[in-house]
Description:
The protein folds into three domains: 5-113 and 317-403, FAD/NAD(P)-binding domain (3-Layer(bba) Sandwich), CATH 3.50.50; 116-313, FAD/NAD(P)-binding domain (3-Layer(bba) Sandwich); 414-496, Enolase-like, domain 1. It contains ten helices and 27 strands. The chain has helices at 16-28, 66-72, 130-141, 153-161, 183-194, 265-271, 322-325, 374-392, 466-475, 493-496; strands at 5-12, 34-38, 42-51, 57-65, 76-80, 83-87, 92-95, 100-108, 112-114, 124-125, 145-149, 166-170, 208-209, 251-254, 259-264, 296-300, 305-308, 310-313, 317-319, 338-340, 351-353, 358-360, 407-412, 415-421, 432-439, 443-450, 453-460. Strands 1, 2, 5, 6, 7, 8 and 21 form a seven-stranded mixed β-sheet that branches. The chain has a five-stranded parallel β-sheet with strand order 10-18-11-12-14, covered by helices on one side. It starts with a strand and ends with a helix. The model is unreliable at 199-225 (pLDDT under 50). The site of NADPH dihydro-nicotinamide-adenine-dinucleotide phosphate has 21 residues, from helix 4. NADPH dihydro-nicotinamide-adenine-dinucleotide phosphate is lined by residues 117, 149-155, 157, 172, 178-179, 258, 314-317, 371-373, 410. This is Pyridine nucleotide-disulfide oxidoreductase domain-containing protein 1. Keywords: FAD, Flavoprotein, Glycoprotein, Oxidoreductase. Its cofactor is FAD. InterPro entries: FAD-bd_OxRdtase, FAD/NAD-bd_sf, FAD/NAD-binding_dom, FAD/NAD-linked_Rdtase_dimer_sf, NAD(P)-bd_dom_sf, Rubredoxin_C.
Amino acid sequence: MAAAARCRFVVVGGGIAGVTCAEQLAAEFTSEDILLVTAAPVIKAVTNFKQISRTLEEFDVEEQPSTMLEKRYPNIKVVESAVKRLKNEEHKIVTDDGNEYIYEKLCLCAGAKPKLIIEGNPYVLGIRDTDSAQEFQKHLANAKRLTVVGNGGIALELVYEIEGCEVIWAIKDKAIGNTFFDAGAAEFLIPKLTAEKPETAIACKRTKYTTEGNEKEEMGVADTAKLGSALGPDWHEGLHLKGAKEFSHKVHIETLCEVKKIYLQEGFKELEQVSLAFPKHKQKEKSQPDEELWPVYVELTNGKIYGCDFIVSATGVVPNVKPFLDGNNFALGEDGGIKVDKHMQTSLLNIYAAGDICTASWEPSPVWQQMRLWTQARQMGWYAAKCIAADTLKQPIDMDFSFELFAHVTKFFNYKVVVLGKYNAQGLGLDCELMLRCTKGHEYVKVVMQNGRMMGAVLIGETNLEETFENLILNQMDLSAYGEDLLNPDIDIEDYFD
Ligand SMILES: Cc1cc2nc3c(=O)[nH]c(=O)nc-3n(C[C@H](O)[C@H](O)[C@H](O)COP(=O)(O)OP(=O)(O)OC[C@H]3O[C@@H](n4cnc5c(N)ncnc54)[C@H](O)[C@@H]3O)c2cc1C
Ligand SMILES: NC(=O)C1=CN([C@@H]2O[C@H](COP(=O)(O)OP(=O)(O)OC[C@H]3O[C@@H](n4cnc5c(N)ncnc54)[C@H](OP(=O)(O)O)[C@@H]3O)[C@@H](O)[C@H]2O)C=CC1
């Protein structure tokens, strides 16, 4: 084995968190080499970054060969190999190709992977990176029916985008989109699921795939050993999400249930049970038995069984900590992430973490919470580099402003969606009050108030309220005197508070 190479700053992971961290370190320490060690052949770069308000930001995510990053920052060196072991006592990482690297400061940004309802079943797919998205697309192309399990971001995007395939959507909750919405917002969105999509979709950002030829020939269980970076905004724009049939949307939602059991065709035949046909929504008739034979069957906790071609488990993520744990006593969060303090430091000296892999364990601002999103991956990667620099140069550092207020802008069902602060009254107790304004098919505005102060908001549609509400949440002004005028559409709220 060759002698271990030494590098003062080592970052693990070529996703948004790792690349942002490496770029910032390269800018802070122009005469040092920054080593970026990543399992995937491509890295994620943030482009067209736009600060759209004090805390809301938008950017594109571009998948690029690592040479492009090295060209932009000549002091970044990318090693394409997975870290298989961390030897914390020796300040050393060992990669799959047998090489060892000694660091002074290490930042772990290895992301997360899908938390599947069942591991190792070839009919249960998760979506995380370009490979798994392409595998999903290949399965979909020949599918007449699929089951989507989960009620978060991926499920919301899929059920809206998929055409030409029946979708059975199984959710634990009463209403759709529980990670972002309450029942009112869900009600507002539902008509979009049954409506025909417009011929030309509203222009939106795309994830660009700069590299070619990384398609897998074989379909089957995703190769988690070659975990790529998480997909970026509008990841599905580059995919053809069409099944084997010629119709637009066909989504049936099964609420308040989970998956009890999954059977392959042979196992199901032995069971001598009846599976159900795709329900006909407009007729309130009893579910009919299904004549067709399917490759896989899903039994739900409400007793219903549906056959389908395959299942998408869009049931959240689990931080990718495994390669770093052996022999290292990291403090871990309840969600399995590596705990970091307010300076992004883990419980082990000189090791930092950022992005989906970490669990924020500082006392957060009353209107911020961690969610595994690309905005937070970028902010954490950037801030981790600043903290590493401050520690190295023995300088003080304050918590970055981006952690003052949770702010996320995205798109669901082709509506612009902005969520701010404690948008679902998370952790606020029972003494909070909700105010709503809704115009069907146009906009949905909800604010969460506590003791006369605005604590959070959900804005669906082109409301133009995000900046004003962001300021009201940040400055915690007492708004009791304004009462319901706060959402009165005849009052120009922006002028009010200028
Ligand atoms: C389908 C999908 C859609 C999404 N849409 C949105 C959205 O619209 N908006 C939003 O805000 N967020 C979205 N997210 C979430 C967002 O993409 C992630 O939160 C974010 O990209 C995480 O970045 P990261 O750098 O922490 O991790 P990742 O992007 O997962 O990067 C991890 C990196 O570490 C590397 N790695 C892993 N293990 C090792 C190892 N042992 N050694 C070396 N390298 C390793 C991987 O190859 C990868 O390069 C979406 C996620 C998915 C899956
Ligand atoms: N536009 C955006 O901002 C998007 C963001 N993303 C991000 O990508 C990541 C992955 O997305 P996704 O997989 O949708 O994760 P999410 O965390 O968004 O949602 C997971 C969903 O699955 C549910 N769930 C968890 N376990 C089970 C189970 N065993 N059976 C049934 N349901 C279950 C959760 O319910 P409960 O909450 O009750 O546990 C939740 O509704 C997330 O970090 C997400 O935020 C993804 C797509 C779009």
